[in-house]
């Protein structure tokens, strides 16, 4: 990650209230882990849907950024399958499902350590010129 994005809410190291996600690429998958605290909850002991959506947005759009392209989310569709619990390590995974020119289609998921998928996403990410 370059210095200009260190304030990013999801991955910026300099954002005092950010999630500070880190990533790795493995077998054409982009992977991060996160354990939500009580400050990330909506209803008691359930991660707020906006935080879950943020995790999925970051794992998809940032994967294209990781590949050296400036990209932004054009569309994000999230399906919440189960409540995502606070205090458990989550694995967030994203992968490319297609590409048409400067438009990438990606999928993502949030899963518990036992493999239960709590949320899924389909994302459309657009490669843009430098901003």
Descriptive tags:
mainly beta, 131 residues, 6 strands, six-stranded antiparallel sheet
Detailed description of the structure:
The chain has a single domain, classed as Thiol Ester Dehydrase, Chain A, CATH 3.10.129.10. It is mainly beta and 131 residues long. The mean pLDDT is 92. The chain is globular. 14% of the residues lie in helices and 40% in strands.
Strand content: 35-45%
Described by the principal axes of the CA atoms, the overall outline is globular
- Return the structural class: mainly beta
- Under the CATH scheme, the architecture is Roll
Order of helices and strands: EEHEEEE
List unreliable stretches of 5+ residues. Answer: none
CATH class: Alpha Beta
The total beta strand count reads 6
How would the blueprint of this fold be written?
Layout: E1 24-26, E2 29-35, H1 49-66, E3 71-80, E4 89-100, E5 103-111, E6 117-127
Task: Give a nutshell description of this structure.
With 131 residues, this protein is mainly β. The chain has one helix and six strands.
């Amino acid at each position: 990650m370059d210095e200009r994005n260190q304030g990013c809410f999801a991955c910026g190291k300099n954002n005092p209230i950010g999630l500070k996600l880190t990533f790795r690429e493995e077998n054409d998958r982009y992977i991060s882990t996160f354990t939500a605290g009580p400050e990330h909850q909506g209803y008691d002991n359930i991660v707020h849907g906006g935080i879950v959506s943020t995790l999925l947005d970051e794992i998809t759009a940032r994967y294209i950024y990781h590949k050296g392209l400036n990209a932004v989310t054009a569309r994000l569709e999230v399906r919440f399958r189960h409540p995502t619990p606070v205090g458990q390590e989550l694995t967030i995974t994203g992968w490319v499902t297609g590409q048409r020119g400067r438009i990438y289609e990606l999928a993502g998921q949030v899963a518990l350590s036992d493999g239960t998928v709590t949320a899924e996403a389909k994302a459309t990410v657009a490669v843009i010129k430098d901003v």
